[in-house]
Amino acid sequence: MKDQNSTSPSGTFVATIDPALAPKIMQDLIEQGFELTKPACTAFSAKKKGINCTLYLSGKLTVQGSEMKDFIEFYLEPQVLKTFTLSYSHIDESLDKTGRIGIDESGKGDFFGPLCVAGVFAEGEEISKLKSFGVRDSKTLTEISILKIGDNIRRHFAHQIVKINPAKYNELIIQFKNLNHLLAWGHATAIEQLVEKTTCRKVIIDQFASEHVVITALKRKNLLVDLTQRHRGEEDLVVAAASILARQAFVESLKKMEKEFGLEFPKGASSRTISAGRAFIRKHGRENLGLVGKLHFKTLDSILKEG
Fold first, then answer.
1. ∠ CA(230), CA(231), CA(235), 5° rounding?
2. In 3D, which of 176, 188, 118 has the Cα closest to residue 296?
3. Confidence of residue 172 (pLDDT cuts 50, 70, 90)
4. How far apart are CA 241 and CA 237, in angstroms?
5. How buried is residue 47: exposed, middle or buried, by Cβ count under 10 Å (0-12/13-18/19+)?
6. Within 13 Å, how many C-alpha atoms sit on residue 196's CB side?
7. Helix (H, G, I), strand (E, B) or coil at 4
8. Given a cut of 70, is residue 5 above it in pLDDT?
């Protein structure tokens, strides 16, 4: 959602929810000082200075007003949105609708699980549709939202996912000798495959290394594109969509690994990761750790030390 720097309203936020949640939400809003009424066809309408919130009998929830952003950020998102399907009825007229490919990755900071690079192509009104799905940087979304929004993106948009499972990752990191070079290869591969699908050559990526690293990887594939590398590239809607697909692929792969090996694999590289690594070795042997983990991480040294 676009940041609001003034007290003027900026569109309508819309969510579809289970109407059975109405009593809980009403109680929460009363405690927050809202005045509640019950117009026709609604479960309730709640108002206080700067915010108007209405839940219709259909389950459609709308929020408007100059204080809408804080209400969503500090109440709806942390307490309820993880169970909601998001959409925006207000689409910013300044939204860049230029056709482009967005690329992002997930898993590079996680000891367990694959490295996933995803690409999405969108143009014109399709980009407004991304916003209506609730697309934003995957790091700000709950896992439930990532899976739900990711499914919508995959159904409606040309996309490509390059998934490098741990065993292959451990081979490639030796070959490339550097994570950034491996990432660049993954980005270039996703770009190459999406260019073939769409013929679009305008590409935006979330910059993760010096610009020449990705440019070199593209040259090795004889791939000519109009490439933009941005810090915080996920602020672009199409890159944000790619970040969601990459994270979805990572999360789903991690769950599949957990089912296969009968263990929990925590995200990241924390003390819980070390404990999980030791548990894996006890159950499946040190020689198989490379099937689930990225062995060049310093975390490996901690796992192999006596706890």
1. 80
2. 176
3. very high
4. 6
5. middle
6. 10
7. coil
8. no
Give yes or no for residue 19 having a pLDDT over 50: yes
Residues sharing a CB contact under 8 Å with residue 31, sequence separation 6 or more, in sequence order: none
Report which of 83, 69, 158, 92 is spatially closest to residue 120, judged by C-alpha positions.
158
Kind plus residue range of the DSSP H or E element containing 159: strand 158-164
Distance CA 262, CA 279 (A): 10
d(CA 233, CA 266): 26
Q: How many CB atoms lie within 10 A of CB 275?
A: 15
Asked if 253 and 165 count as a contact pair (C-beta separation under 8 A), the reply is: yes
Helices 237-261 and 125-132 sit at what angle, rounded to 10 degrees? 50
Handedness of CA 188, 193, 194, 198 (dihedral sign): positive
Query: What is the token pair recorded at 108?
Result: 């590079």
**What would the two tokens of residue 111 be?**
């000891």
Distance CA(274)–CA(269), nearest Å, equals: 7
301/114 Cα distance (integer angstroms): 20
User: Strand order in 226-230's β-sheet?
Assistant: 158-164, 115-122, 100-106, 202-206, 226-230
- Does residue 86 register a pLDDT over 50? no
Query: Mutual orientation of helices 179-198 and 211-220 as an angle, nearest 10°?
Result: 60
pTM here is 0.70
CB atoms within 10 A of CB 56: 16
User: What's the first-to-final CA gap in the chain, in angstroms?
Assistant: 45
Q: Residue 52: is its pLDDT beyond 80?
A: yes
Q: Where are the beta strands (DSSP E) in 68-157?
A: 85-88, 100-106, 115-122
Q: Where are the alpha helices (DSSP H) in the chain?
A: 22-31, 68-71, 125-132, 143-156, 166-176, 179-198, 211-220, 237-261, 271-284, 299-304
Instruction: For residue 55, give the nearest of 63, 44, 65, 71 by alpha carbon.
Output: 44
Write the single-letter amino acid at 22: A
- Whether 111 contacts 299, CB under 8 Å: yes
